[in-house]
Amino acid sequence: MSELQPVLLSGGSGTRLWPLSREAYPKQFLPLGSDDTMVQTTWKRVEPLTSLAPIVVANEDHRFLVAEQLRQIKAPTPKILLEPVAKNTAPAIAAAALCALEGGTDPLLLVLPSDHVIANAEAFRNAVESASAAAEAGALVTFGVVPDAPETGFGYIQAGAGHGVVPVQRFVEKPDAQTAAQYLAEGGYYWNSGMFLFKASRYIEELQKFQPAMVEAVKQALSAGTRDGDFIRLDKAAFAASPSDSIDYAVMEKTADAKVLPIDVGWNDVGSWSALYDVADHDANGNVCVGDVISVESRNNYVHAEGLVALVGVEDVVVVETDDAILVAKKDRVQEVKKVVAQLKHDQRSQAALHRKVYRPWGAYDSIDMGARFQVKRITVNPGASLSLQMHHHRAEHWIVVSGTAKVTRGDDTLLLSENQSTYIPLGVTHRLENPGKVPLELIEVQSGSYLGEDDIVRFEDVYGRSN
Amino acid sequence: MSELQPVLLSGGSGTRLWPLSREAYPKQFLPLGSDDTMVQTTWKRVEPLTSLAPIVVANEDHRFLVAEQLRQIKAPTPKILLEPVAKNTAPAIAAAALCALEGGTDPLLLVLPSDHVIANAEAFRNAVESASAAAEAGALVTFGVVPDAPETGFGYIQAGAGHGVVPVQRFVEKPDAQTAAQYLAEGGYYWNSGMFLFKASRYIEELQKFQPAMVEAVKQALSAGTRDGDFIRLDKAAFAASPSDSIDYAVMEKTADAKVLPIDVGWNDVGSWSALYDVADHDANGNVCVGDVISVESRNNYVHAEGLVALVGVEDVVVVETDDAILVAKKDRVQEVKKVVAQLKHDQRSQAALHRKVYRPWGAYDSIDMGARFQVKRITVNPGASLSLQMHHHRAEHWIVVSGTAKVTRGDDTLLLSENQSTYIPLGVTHRLENPGKVPLELIEVQSGSYLGEDDIVRFEDVYGRSN
């Protein structure tokens, strides 16, 4: 039996869960209905099935998030394939398959979107195991979710006769409500979950038949790519030359070896706030309250509070409070959240893509206060991490360490600061901040000056390869 | 003709507009639907009618707010009567009347709650002028608002026959819906607005008839009270001995000289969020949006945003966002906001009474960030103001001036700090912060220590008479 190679697809930018999910920190990196983030949960779900480290396909911008979140749950060090441009799932999975084949073995790839919920992980693992023989024998197995409602937001898979893993009869596009109801009544139709199991070599073989240019481009992108720690950076020019297509169109709908295993494992793609409401535990009034919520005579609401949220007499409403944006939406209208995001993008506002707390390779900063000529940030530096050696033309900075230890380079001096110690970086002075310790460093930075934009920075050295 | 002496009643604690209005900073001090606060608007509305400075009756806790807000609009220096305990309107107005009589003249008192909206100030001033002759002749005139809806939240006044100032036929309690509708259909019934015009001496005479103990207690409270700058602090023991009663019960319903002038001046007591919605300008979708609001397919909502609030598909909802609490309420259920406040009080939570930004006699502080062993505050010190000479047992403080100039006493040293300068106050060191300048001083304070409660303070000297 071949080893199982989990492939986590982490390409999504999940704006349907705005304002919690934003481009720079989307859904898969959030703890939605769990203490772990969705990418962490996705890995933990399949970890018992394999001794291999995950292969993750991620957006360049999310590389440190992926690495850090998997590190936090002590996952074996992953290979992280970075897509320089988005090309849909077929090339992404091809890159993962080729990468898996590099070791000289031909594992079973278990392809998993990393932003779905599966309530019954045990049942899912059992399903993977029951699909393994067919995949080992050369089938391209997709997992079809037994529908419990006439959903119009998913594609459907019609299964052939029989039990267990059966041939796919056909893939059907997202149906209208009437057709969806008919599928549900008729039976034998399953939601297309986007999860697959097949031998790495079989996927490449079949892709070669239908999309030879794609295979060629991805091979090029991998061989011309650069390896940098855990990251495998696909070559931009080569990858950009690949056709863009989904695995469904490129392979699954064309191959003679498509099979489907119906699963009933509490799957939910959490594609909207109302979906998140549906999968969560409700209180006696039908409310789902995450955080500090006071509810008076209110029913069937979803509330995510980072501060205090009070509800009075409201029903079927979604309230999502974050540091710098609040959403109040009718639960059956949450798909239109994308219009808010579109408006923010149009207005070039940061809330479209960024949270107030911004994650960096070295940690994070949170802009906690701002005035005409000053800004206050809480800066967190991970153990062992280091900001770039830098200089600002328009601002001075005051640093007060409130937790952990800082190593500060200031001009020609080097200082070690611990809790309750401070220093001052005059305008124009070259400086660097490092955390030499074993616990996170937290400091308060007070910037003072006439211009306080993030772009007033001259970087001299950066361990993360950033020049500006 | 006697001079007009405006008396501003500022006793309310307005929790029906929580979370914007809180006990320590209630409705009358907020700019609701205007650039000025309600107490400022109340003064500006009557300023053209008089050359006298206002008499204000206020809660002890609000004394600096009243003084500061009237100073900001360059009102003549008011006399501010401080009630040591709340005793309803009759004693409060008695204190104002006795105070007005101290100068040896007998002015016409114009008694005004300072938390009501009057859309047509000009019409209101005209009404005051047309009521003056009757008041001058000894009548106790109340202003009755011409009703435009069968409101059940107000008491009504039935007027006698005639035009202009006419005798009151009777006062009636808050009616049920059917009775209110009947009043509206019948005509001759007016809302009891709580605004009055009478000679100071006439009020005292009539009060003496019906509540002699009250007059005695208030006279005592005034004569035994202390005068401290603009403040007249009524003697606590004496004032506490006064019966508690409203001017309506104590005087207006009993006197033979009660008269009423019907007015139609766009009056609204802004007694709830829905009332505030009603008086504000609506956009094309019927929304009232104060602040940064993105509205998608949403109608007839009231939104007060301090950050960004996005609405999607909601109708008839009130959303009020503040730094540390958010209210989402159905517009026809906003009276139940008081249940939220009651819950917060029960749980002894600061949001019941305090905003995140807390006003002090010397300025304000805003707690912008907090961690396990640190807290960050933005501190604003008014020009010329001074914090107490103080010391903390459990925390050190880092101060960074970001605007204006600070005079810092630290142990035996005195420093002058300007923008972009900082200092450090070690734990246990006596210190004082002053603003010697002409513009507000803003500084960022980073507290570091094991206990950061406001009660870790030893005060040695305090210009505002606070010992702890």
UniProtKB/TrEMBL annotation, chains A, B:
Say which family it is in: Belongs to the mannose-6-phosphate isomerase type 2 family.
Summarizing the function annotation, the protein's role is: Involved in xanthan production.
Task: Give the Nucleotidyl transferase domain ranges.
Answer: 6-284
Protein name as annotated: Xanthan biosynthesis protein XanB
Functional pathway:
Nucleotide-sugar biosynthesis; GDP-alpha-D-mannose biosynthesis; GDP-alpha-D-mannose from alpha-D-mannose 1-phosphate (GTP route): step 1/1
A Pfam family of this chain: MannoseP_isomer
Chain ranges of the Mannose-6-phosphate isomerase type II C-terminal domain: 348-462
What molecular functions are annotated in GO for this chain? GTP binding; isomerase activity; mannose-1-phosphate guanylyltransferase (GTP) activity
SUPFAM superfamilies noted in UniProt: Nucleotide-diphospho-sugar transferases (SSF53448), RmlC-like cupins (SSF51182)
Class of enzymatic activity (EC top level): transferase
Whose protein is this, by species?
Answer: Pseudoxanthomonas composti
Q: Which InterPro entries match?
A: GMPP_N, Man1P_GuaTrfase/Man6P_Isoase, Man6P_isomerase-2_C, ManC/GMP-like_b-helix, Mannose-6P_isomerase_type2, NTP_transferase_dom, Nucleotide-diphossugar_trans, RmlC-like_jellyroll
Q: Which GO terms describe its biological process?
A: GDP-mannose biosynthetic process; polysaccharide biosynthetic process
What EC designation does it have?
2.7.7.13
What keywords are annotated for this sequence in UniProt?
Exopolysaccharide synthesis, GTP-binding, Isomerase, Nucleotide-binding, Nucleotidyltransferase, Transferase
Record-annotated MannoseP isomerase/GMP-like beta-helix domain positions:
291-344
Catalytic activity, reaction form: alpha-D-mannose 1-phosphate + GTP + H(+) = GDP-alpha-D-mannose + diphosphate
Q: Which residues form a coiled coil?
A: none
